[in-house]
Amino acid sequence: MNNSVLIALTLGASIALSPVSIAGTARLSTQAIKMSSLNLSSQKWQNRVLLVFAPSVDNRDYQQQMQLFNQHQNGFTDRDLVLVQVLATDKSYANRQLIDESSAAKLRDRFGVDKDNFHVILIGKDGGVKRQDATPVQATAIFEQIDAMPMRQQEIQQRGRK
């Protein structure tokens, strides 16, 4: 693969996975939705990633978790936080962009989350696991933890100067 193709693919992935609100304001086109692969390493040093694993959209914990997050859309954007929903029997998404089943399976394997389990995992910009929860968690608790991180403190200072 030549460098220009590789650069185009990398830029496309970065744009597709840039932080956006959970509810989203983008309108769906009449075109077929293209599935993307998700590579966590492409997010390193750019975005924090919040993985929500669940058996399906019908899972009670999953529904409760999404409700808790939908109340705090701006907090996700402010903290460069990408929401990745990894569902066993339904479609999986990264910031409302469909991701392929292979990527979802790799995430389950990497973090050791069984298809029948609900789990929330916060990945920092450095690629490390910062938090794990087996029950729904308040968005504010995640935000407080992120806001206490040294990298986030630097971001707040830098954005305050602009």
From TrEMBL:
Q: Which residues form the DUF4174 domain?
A: 40-155
- Superkingdom is Bacteria
Q: Which UniProt keywords apply?
A: Signal
Q: Quote the InterPro entries the UniProt record gives.
A: DUF4174
Asked if the keyword Signal belongs to this entry, the reply reads yes
Protein name in UniProt: DUF4174 domain-containing protein
What organism is recorded for this protein?
Anabaena azotica FACHB-119
